[in-house]
């Protein structure tokens, strides 16, 4: 395993995240998102595209005026007018983006490789003259000729860029290919190298981790993986994956992440999938009897990720796949100690309920089921009394397990 090392997270929720079709953050949301990201310890934030217009530039200026403990970057095309607009915003660094693949150089820009190299020299110099630190973003790097990509990156370095960005713009890479591509750049360059991954094949996080292992110094992420099409590498997955799998530290503390995740989810206008890793509503919920029994004996039996690392906890859910121990635990939370025979009977009831209603019974419904047991049919007050003593649990039967 690697010795402890660090990489820098450059979160682009406010740039590529907002590029998700249909997403437009308000200024208040941008301020809230940036402030929370900085509070978690995210050291770099890409906060917008000055060329989009006066309103965008004003919001960038306001974000810069907050003097957050994070370095801010803006994104620009490699065009003189766009670069000019990056100046005077209070943002120290710009990512100047240029396509690296022949596909985009020829079929998008109508240019050739020589033009790209000349443009890099000219535009990096222009940005530096404006007092900006410069990163050169190689759009579509993953489809570029690797020899040309290295030549272009060396041109950027020679022109005074401090960083190059390897963008898998259309999300076609896999981790072994990323490792080889970043290793090649690492061997041929002395500048910072940043990975920018997209999740079209569900590999954005894997590709980002592979880039870190190959020597990338900076990683682009977004909260919840928001971003163009299938999104970018999720901040939470990258931070936890680096730490847990490779002992690579980012300085980002995810214990307060749920509030930021919810903020970005709401601001994006689209609910997160309930199975989305680390942040989905149900990713720490357990119903299957064998899992619940195992968790109750020792959470480590069924825990790959400690939910506390992302500010969450396990919940136990009753349903079609429950077993006796889950039922006993659920009723114990209501203050009702079940005998084995009662638990078995209630398990059958719970299963029928779940199949019929397509959901779990809530606390009141559990109490109702309990009252149908023969020996309790004459004394329903017991369950009511218990529920009355535990009002906070009436709304839900989902139970926390000590992690
Ligand atoms: C992969 C990425 O995520 S790149 C970032 C993409 N983000 C965005 O596009 C969001 C913000 N974009 C915008 O607000 C607008 O597209 C603007 C302000 C940048 C440009 O708007 P417009 O001038 O109206 O151009 P439009 O968006 O229609 O077309 C893009 C133009 O940029 C050119 N272009 C694209 N990438 C680059 C580049 N890296 N360097 C130089 N020119 C570029 C295109 O060739 C096209 O120019 P053309 O019309 O002369 O062929
Ligand atoms: O060129 C860059 O800086 C990266 C642009 C981007 O968002 C992408 O290619 O997906």
UniProtKB/TrEMBL annotation:
NCBIfam families: nifV_homocitr (TIGR02660). This is Homocitrate synthase. Belongs to the alpha-IPM synthase/homocitrate synthase family. It holds the Pfam family HMGL-like. One of its GO terms (molecular function) is homocitrate synthase activity. Coiled coil: none annotated. The lineage of its organism: Bacteria, Pseudomonadati, Pseudomonadota, Gammaproteobacteria, Methylococcales. This protein is a Fe-Mo-cofactor biosynthetic component. Keywords: Nitrogen fixation, Transferase. Its EC number is 2.3.3.14. GO terms for biological process: carboxylic acid metabolic process; nitrogen fixation. It catalyses: acetyl-CoA + 2-oxoglutarate + H2O = (2R)-homocitrate + CoA + H(+). Residues 7-258 form the Pyruvate carboxyltransferase domain. InterPro entries: AIPM/Hcit_synth_CS, LeuA/HCS_post-cat, NifV/FrbC, PYR_CT. It is an enzyme of class 2 (transferase).
């Amino acid at each position: 395993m690697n010795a402890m090392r660090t990489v820098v997270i450059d979160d682009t929720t406010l740039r590529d995240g907002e590029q998700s079709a249909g997403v437009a953050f308000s200024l208040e949301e941008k301020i809230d998102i940036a402030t929370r990201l900085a509070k978690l310890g995210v050291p770099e934030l890409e906060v917008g595209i000055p060329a989009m217009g006066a309103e965008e530039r004003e919001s960038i200026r306001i974000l810069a005026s907050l003097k957050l403990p994070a370095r801010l970057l803006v994104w620009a095309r490699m065009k003189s007018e766009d670069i000019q607009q990056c100046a005077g915003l209070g943002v120290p660094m710009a990512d100047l983006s240029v396509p690296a693949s022949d596909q985009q150089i020829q079929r998008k820009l109508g240019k050739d490789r020589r033009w790209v190299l000349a443009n890099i020299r000219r535009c990096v110099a222009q940005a530096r003259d404006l007092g900006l630190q410069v990163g050169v973003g190689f759009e579509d790097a993953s489809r570029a000729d690797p020899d040309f990509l290295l030549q272009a990156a060396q041109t950027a370095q020679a022109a005074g860029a401090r960083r190059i960005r390897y963008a898998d713009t259309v999300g076609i890479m896999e981790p072994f290919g990323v490792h080889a591509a970043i290793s090649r750049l690492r061997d041929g360059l002395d500048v910072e190298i940043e990975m920018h991954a997209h999740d079209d094949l569900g590999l954005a996080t894997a590709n980002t981790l592979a880039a870190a292992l190959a020597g990338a110094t900076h990683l682009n992420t977004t909260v919840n993986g928001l971003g163009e099409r299938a999104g970018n590498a999720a901040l939470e997955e990258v931070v936890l994956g680096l730490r847990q799998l490779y002992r690579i530290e980012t300085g980002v503390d995810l214990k307060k992440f749920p509030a930021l995740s919810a903020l970005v989810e709401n601001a994006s206008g689209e609910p997160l999938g309930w199975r989305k890793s680390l942040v989905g509503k149900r990713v720490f919920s357990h119903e299957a009897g064998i899992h619940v029994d195992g968790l109750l004996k020792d959470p480590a039996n069924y825990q790959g990720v400690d939910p506390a690392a992302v500010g969450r906890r396990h919940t136990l859910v009753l349903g079609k796949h429950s077993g006796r121990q889950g039922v006993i635990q659920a009723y114990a939370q209501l203050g009702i100690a079940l005998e084995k025979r009662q638990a078995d009977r209630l398990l059958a009831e719970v299963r029928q309920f779940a199949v019929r209603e397509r959901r779990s019974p809530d606390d009141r419904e559990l109490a109702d089921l309990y009252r149908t047991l023969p020996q309790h049919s004459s004394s329903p007050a017991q369950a009511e009394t218990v529920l009355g003593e535990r009002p906070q649990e009436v709304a839900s039967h989902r139970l926390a397990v000590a992690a």
